[in-house]
Amino acid sequence: MEIKDTYKTIDTPGEEALFKDKNSKFFGYTFPITTEEEAKHIIADLKKKHHAARHWCYAWKIGTESATYRINDDGEPSNSAGQPIYGQILSFDVTNILIVVVRYFGGVKLGVGGLINAYRTAAQLALETSDIVEKTINIDFVLIFEYKDMNKVMRIIKEHNLKITKQDHELNCKIHISVRKKFADKIKDVFSPLYGIEIRKTQD
């Protein structure tokens, strides 16, 4: 079975998108995030920027293999804002992303159906203005060995075109490498039998 080891996300905030319906304005924004804390700061900043707005509704999704998400209707009728925004995150199949839709009320009620359409459309427009990129899910390993084995280790790293993320040459040599998930077991099997060279996942 093919291992799925890629995901889609954004690296930079998207351009502001605007959707209008019956004088209400819906501004859509996308932001790259990796923690809930980042999302809170961004939402707080948007509330300052749009202090005269009525609602700041949002949805976010974080994680690649086991994802967490949150939706918020911010005073709109239940499931009329956060859920349609989150639906667009699922539709575009992106993660590590926050979408906020800021609403200025135009004096005319849109009804739940109108709200769902407006929040969904604003989120969709925001995603369409964003630069969506595909990334690989990587496993991080640390190689621990004595200095005399340096050439052997570096030769294997070069042969397999491995990415070094950190090096430490104090008592023992330590080289941190990042390996695409689908190749992780293979790389572990290359280093494991070598005498005097230890390989282990950095999360362990």
TrEMBL record:
Q: Enumerate the spans annotated as Impact N-terminal domain.
A: 22-127
**Matching InterPro entries:** Impact, Impact_N, Impact_N_sf, Ribosomal_Su5_D2-typ_SF
Which domain of life does this protein belong to?
A: Bacteria
Q: What are its GO biological-process terms?
A: regulation of translational initiation
> What is one cellular component GO term in this UniProt entry?
cytoplasm
Q: Which Pfam families match?
A: Impact_N
Note the SUPFAM superfamilies from the entry.
Ribosomal protein S5 domain 2-like
Family in the record: Belongs to the IMPACT family.
Q: Which PANTHER family match?
A: IMPACT FAMILY MEMBER YIGZ (PTHR16301:SF20), IMPACT-RELATED (PTHR16301)
State the name under which the record lists this protein: Impact N-terminal domain-containing protein
Organism, by scientific name, is Aquimarina atlantica
